[in-house]
Amino acid sequence: MVAKSHGSFMKVGNLGFPRIGAKRELKWALEGYWQGKIDENELRSRTASLRLKHWRLQQEHGVTCPPSNDFSLYDHVLDAAWMVGAIPERFNPEPSLSNYFAMARGLKEQPPLEMTKWFDTNYHYLVPEFEAGMRYSLTDPKVLNEFKEALAQGIHTRPVLLGPVTLVWLGRHIKVEPEDVLAGILPVYVQVLDSLGELGAQWVQMDEPLLGLELSPRQVESFRQSYAYLAQHRKPHWPRCLLANYFSPLRENLGLALELGCQGLHLDLVRGAEDFEPALAEVPSGMVLSLGLVDGRNVWRTDLAKAQALLEKAQARLGTDLLEVAPSCSLLYVPYDLRLETQLDPRLKSWLAFSVQKLDELTLLAQGIPPEVRAESQRSLEERRNSPVVQNPEVRRRLAQIRPEDYQRRSPFDKRWPRQQEHLRLPTFPTTTIGSFPQTAELRLARAALREKRLSEEAYQSLLREQIAQAIDFQEEIELDVLVHGEPERSDMVEYFAEQLEGFAITQHGWVQSYGSRAVKPPIIYGDVHRSAPMTVHWIGYAQSLTSKPVKGMLTGPLTLMKWSFVRDDQPLQDTCTQIALALRDEVKDLEAAGIRVIQVDEPALREAAPLRPKDWPEYFDWAVKCFRLATSGVADATQIHSHMCYSDFNSIISYIAAMDADVISIEAARSQMELLEAFGEGRYPNHIGPGVYDIHSPRIPSVEEIIQLLKKIERYIPLEKIWVNPDCGLKTRSWAEVRVALKNMVLAAQAMRARGEQ
């Protein structure tokens, strides 16, 4: 393959591989099963084939010991909770596939587990619920079965386990303390490690990304006691343990990680480069260091010379046998294979590396980089740095001319609201939706036919007008107060804008898993961003022409457009985000000029994009909030600005949300049964708010009475004159059969609450 440069080959590790497959095979298998098109045996057969393909591919590309148990039918955190038997009382405890999916997707009368973002990624995990009185046991031996499955094919894997401390502290604790939950589940981990050892596993990867956060004294003690327990029960045949931290530096937790008794430690040296020197100085004799030198979160080629310099320094200190080269984290967060991209600009493509190419980079580092490969790598980096498609002088000039007043609305909220009401005349408990309506099979087929030139642009435009008209008619029929056009022209809330903004590129097959069968295709920001023409005015204006009710202009915010793309790594994030904000500012002004009185600029990524440690927040939120205000502050007082956020710990960021100064924000709240609203109580949020009353990530339809009860809960925290009524999120992934009933119930519930107030 590649000539060896020094000593014996170094081990090549991998913390995880994309589950969905090169062509989203997992998605199609899962949805076929849920729709009754295939049975459980067929689902298991297809997913077993996918796992085997991935193990063999990783071996072919140099991975010494591919991971197992990194594959999941829905979510690895749900798998870990399912493994230890953390099954809430409202679900059937029998270990069947239907019961597993019930926890993920809910049942008619049972809401699913709450869903939130996995650290600062755009991956969603299901939040485990630990209840008082739970009895823990090895409910699902998936980790054992998949190790045996690989072994039967002659492949020796390294099983991956979500560590017990991260599992427990990221969960919800219902009348039970985390320490008591740990005491219950640790015997299950002992049983798993013992069984893996008996099967012949040599190493196990124990993922504890909680170590990258600011730990409380209780959490520090949880780590010490949990790993002391595992050490006390350790037997000679047990596999050695590679403790894996990622997404953030260990910093003050490095000493803790080194003292937990594991035989190896993985460092994320992309996001935690500061750990490198201290780890080399403090690593105990005989401990293996896994160096995460290849970025598992972004798509740019690795600076091989820089990575090799670190590797050589570590090798001089520890030798080859105690080192492993690896991606910074699981490759779950990057696309599958760059070779599938046949339509990308060749110049841009030469700067990229997807999962398969990142494995090749690891092998190059492990075996030694030939001079000609190193020279080519440096040429590519230099070409990208100096390319005219990357830097735009006009964009940079405009950035330098931003004034302080560009970040401010003309008047405070209490002066704006009466002027907005003069135009909108909204009732109490005004109803609206977040933006998108179901993307029907007809729409998806038409979009594909347009791309393949089997459908004319005129016919496609006619279909969009028809869809928008139907959406307006439906909303007027059920008496919604603020309407949306339904976004039939948009394949994705990020991709749609990326297709129209300069500096973005779109891939054909750059899919990454979001949750379950849901995958997204993040655009790539490769250069300075600017807008060459209006992006939404035509369709929003058309929708407004069909009704006398207000129609919201729908935009994705600057931070979310950046965060949900693969962002360029050659300039500060603040600069990229500000460029996008300026482009959106122009769009907001054009919408207002077209007569749109309500404009929603969604920022669901506001919290997830924040640094993982709160001490690093002030600098980030300063520029993040400024970018939102730059995009939205150029309008008159009578124009109402909305924003939407979801999957956030709102309590910790309420002051920053208030600083955004949106007239109305809508938030995800249904899955948590409004528990998130405590952050907005006691006047801590001054403007208007729409807590979601319909969980759109589950197929279950809430009843009128259920929504009324949620609205009554909202009143405990928010003054009724400030409450809006809306779903948790956009309705793109739901069916019209579900949406029609759910939204009708939502409107009826709001009307009932109004009638109660008028009595």
From TrEMBL:
Function summary: Catalyzes the transfer of a methyl group from 5-methyltetrahydrofolate to homocysteine resulting in methionine formation.
The record, for Pfam families, names: Meth_synt_1, Meth_synt_2
Q: Which residues bind L-methionine?
A: I434, G435, S436, E487, D602
**Similarity-based family:** Belongs to the vitamin-B12 independent methionine synthase family.
Cofactors required: Zn(2+)
The record's section on NCBIfam families has: met_syn_B12ind, PRK05222.1
Q: What residues does L-homocysteine bind to?
A: I434, G435, S436, E487, D602
* A single GO molecular function term of this UniProt record: 5-methyltetrahydropteroyltriglutamate-homocysteine S-methyltransferase activity
* Keywords (A to Z) from UniProt: Amino-acid biosynthesis, Metal-binding, Methionine biosynthesis, Methyltransferase, Repeat, Transferase, Zinc
Outline the extent of the Cobalamin-independent methionine synthase MetE C-terminal/archaeal domain. 429-751
| UniProt key word Cytoplasm | no
Binding note for cofactor = Binds 1 zinc ion per subunit. Binds 2 Zn(2+) ions per subunit.
Q: Give the InterPro entries listed for this entry.
A: Cbl-indep_Met_Synth_N, Cobalamin-indep_Met_synthase, Met_Synth_C/arc, UROD/MetE-like_sf
- Protein name as annotated: 5-methyltetrahydropteroyltriglutamate--homocysteine methyltransferase
**Any single biological process term in GO:** methionine biosynthetic process
Tell me which EC number(s) this protein carries.
2.1.1.14
Q: Which residues form the active site?
A: H697 (proton donor)
Q: Where does 5-methyltetrahydropteroyltri-L-glutamate bind?
A: R24, E25, L26, K27, K117, N122, W564, E608
UniProt-listed Gene3D superfamilies = 3.20.20.210
Reactions catalysed according to its record: 5-methyltetrahydropteroyltri-L-glutamate + L-homocysteine = tetrahydropteroyltri-L-glutamate + L-methionine
Q: Does the keyword rRNA processing apply?
A: no
Q: Look up and give the organism this protein is from.
A: Meiothermus ruber (strain ATCC 35948 / DSM 1279 / VKM B-1258 / 21) (Thermus ruber)
Q: Which residues bind Zn(2+) 1?
A: H644, C646, E668, C729
Residue ranges of the Cobalamin-independent methionine synthase MetE N-terminal domain? 14-317
Q: Where does Zn(2+) bind?
A: H644, C646, E668, C729
